[in-house]
Amino acid sequence: MSSMRISRRTVLKGIGATVALPLLEAMLPAASAAAPAAQAPRRMAFIMFPHGAWMPSWMPTGQGPDYTMTPCLEPFGEHRKDMIVFGNLLCDKGYPNGDGAGDHARAGGAYLTGAQPRKTAGANFSCGVSADQIAASRLGDRTRFRSLELAIDRYRATGNCDSGYSCVYEHTLSWRNPTSPLPTESNPRMVFDRLFRGGQADAETSARNDLRSSVLDSVLDEANNLSRRLGGNDQRKLDQFLTGIREVEQRIARAATLAPVDVPPDFGRPAGVPADLTEHMRLMYDLMALAFQTDVTRIITFIVAREGSDFRYRMVGVNEGHHTLSHHQNRPANLAKLKAINVYLNEQLAYFIGKLKSIKEAEGNLLNNSMIAFGSAHSDPNRHAHDDLPILLFGQGGGSIRTGRYMRMPPRTPLNNLWIAMLERFGVPNARFGDGTGALQGLS
Question: What is the spatial distance between Cα 94 and Cα 90, in angstroms, rounded to a whole number?
C-alpha cells in the first residue's frame, strides 16, 4: 500500500459535481500497538414492504442456525449466513387500540416509531419520533446528509388515504418529531443529483446539468491524478467505485428515454423514473449502496411500496392489486399470488445485499459494517394482524451482531426493542421511544 495518507472527507470536485470517495486504505491511519487501524463506520437502513406475507411460506421451522428455509426466504439462500430471521415481534400500535379502522395508515406510521398515530386526515397529524431520526439527531452531523428518505411511490402528505387517516402516515417512515414527517424521494435522477451534484436537484439545475458532461466526466482528471498516487488496492477500489457510478448514471439516462407503461393511478409513479419496476427498485438500491460507500450518509429509510398500495405485479403473473389480494380469504389461488409477490420483493432485496457484499471495505465488506432491517408492520394481512411480523436483519453491524440464525422471541416482543438494539450498536445507547421496553437481547 502507498504511504500516502488522505482525509476521509476527501472529495472529487468538478463543474457542478462533488463526488465523495469510498473508504480507502489511504484514509486509515497505519496500525500500531499504540494506535490500531481505524474501523469502518457503521450504517443502517430500515426498509419496509406493505401488506405482510403468507406467513406459513415465510416463517422457518426449527431454531438457531439449523432452521429450515421457507419458499419466501429462498431468494436469500446465498446470504443465509448474513441474516437473522425474527419471530414474535409485534407492532402493537398498528392495531386500533380504540381508533377503529385504518390499519394500513397506522402500520406505516408505527413501523419505526412504535407510537399510535393520531386519527386525522387533516394537518393536525401526529405520530412519534422514529428510530432513524433518533440516530440522525445524535450522529447525523458526521456525514454530508443526516439521513436519506427514499420510496418507490411518489410522496403524498395531504388527503385521506385510509379510513380517516392522513396520507402522510403511509408515505413516510421518518419522523423528526411527532409532528414533523420527512418527505421521501422516489425519482432516482433526483437522488443522484442530490448525492453527486451538490444537493441541488431543482428544474433549473437539472436542465443546466444536462448541457454539461456527466458527473464522472467532470471529475475524471482529478480522479486520475488521485489514482496515480494511491496504492494498488486503493486504485482497484477507486476504479470499481467510479465504474459503478458510471453504470448508475447510464441506467438513469436510459430510463428517461423509455416509454411509460400503464400503472394503476394508486401507484403514483412520477415522470422521470424507470418505466420498469424492477429497474426502479434496483436503481434505488444501487443509490443506497453508493450513499453508504461514499459515507455521505449512514442512515437510510426506504419504502418499497406504501401501505395500502394496490400495485399489480404483472411481472410475476399477478394481475390483481396487492392490497385487494392481501385479503386472501385463505383461497389457494390468492395465497399463491401473495407468496409470488413476497418472493419478488425479496429477490430485489437480495440484489441489494449482494451489492453490499461485493464492495470491499477495510478488512471485510460494506455489509459487514451495516445493519439492514427489512420487514412489514403486518403479518397476516387478511386479518390485519400486527404480531409475529416478517422481519429480517442483514449485516454484522461492525462485528456486533451474530447472524446466520432464526431468533424466535417471547410472544409480543415490541418491534421497537430491535430498533433500540440497533441504535445501541450504531452509537446511541439507552434510547427510549414509542412502545419499546429496552434493547432486544441476544443479537451478539
Answer: 9
Task: Tell me the C-alpha distance between 344 and 380, whole Å.
Answer: 18
Q: Which amino acid is at 164?
A: G
What's the CA gap between 182 and 197, in Å, rounded?
A: 21
Q: Give me the residue label for grid cell 477500489.
A: 237
The length of the chain, given as a count of residues: 444
Look up residue 61 and give its amino acid.
Answer: T
What cell does 209 get? 446539468
Regarding pTM above 0.90, the answer is no
**Spatial CA neighbour of 322 closest among 164, 151, 314:** 314
- pLDDT, tens digit (0-9, with 9 covering 90-100), for 114-146: 999 999 999 999 999 999 999 999 999 888 889
Q: How many CA atoms lie within 13 A of 265 on its CB side?
A: 0
Lookup: cell for 196: 453527486
Residue bearing cell 389480494: 325
CB atoms within 10 A of CB 93: 27
Residue 76: which of 340, 338, 351, 396 has the closest Cα?
A: 351
**59 exposure class (CB count in 10 Å sphere: 0-12, 13-18, 19+):** buried
Residues 6+ apart with CB under 8 A from 330: 382
